[in-house]
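Continuing the series of single-chain predictions for the mutant panel. This is the parent chain; the variants come on the following pages.
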Amino acid sequence: MKTKLIFLTFLLFNLLNIKAQCEPTITSPRLGAVFADKILFCESEDEILSTTQTYSTYQWYKQEWTWQTPNNNPWQAIPGATSQQLTINGSNDQLYYFKVAVTQGDCTAESQAVMGDGYVYGLPAMMSTFVPGTYEIVDGGIVHVCSEAPVKFDNVFPVVYGPHTWFKCVPTTTAPFTGDPCVIPNVTGDTYTATEPGQYGFYACTEYCPDQCKMLDPFAFVELQYGNWEFCGNLGTGEITKPKENKLNIYPNPTAQFLYIGKESEEYKEVAIMDMSGKLVLKKDNHQYRQAIDVSHLVPGNYIIVSKSVKGEIYRNKLIKK
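Parent structure:
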């Protein structure tokens, strides 16, 4: 009896072991770095796909992406792709799905598909925050600012970009801008507060693809002209207050389904929710703070909310979707 139990235990263990080995899973250095089921290429670099376990035989397949659901494009066996690893390339393999079929003993199985795609992100955009009553926008978009009043500049997509180079005028050189007098030294963050006249903007490289760098369009640089303008006379002689926080109350945060945004005293011309690449995923016009926004369809992760009030004020918040 004891011998039979040992044999049955051994047999059951081997059956479970075979089953475990017949669940191929694809892995790759970039897989899941931004999206769980995607490999995002920066440029034309190679990427190696592999299975997490070894098998007796392999056959890799690819399928062209389509916007239609279901995807009726055929899965095609990749000639010669019969080893544990498959090398794909950013030039030829973007917008394709990949999977692998394996055998191990009497077992045959296929992996879940993964997609090769290009890294898409929001181009540089800058948000300006002024102290109420200390500024006036004049012809050409030039801003007259009261002496010593701070003006805060923010990259709208701070999570997308890594170290910044900030400018107080439009640079005449190219990266790395060595010796350019427009560079503001020792400032590399995604925000900068100005208290002096200048024409402000920035240059930054993406965090995910450090070689992909962008300059804020020179037309989007903001020119500040400081002085004791006529409208500054109402400010008195006390210390100028700091810029008000350009954020709104959002709750609950994190959230799995409904989200409330805003202040009771304001109406909002537009509420936009973007993912960390800058892609617009949800937009609401004429929003009021009592209205719940349903975000249940969004993939769990971090998002940026940009709200524009009917008075022209712009607010930015981070949202965590559960």
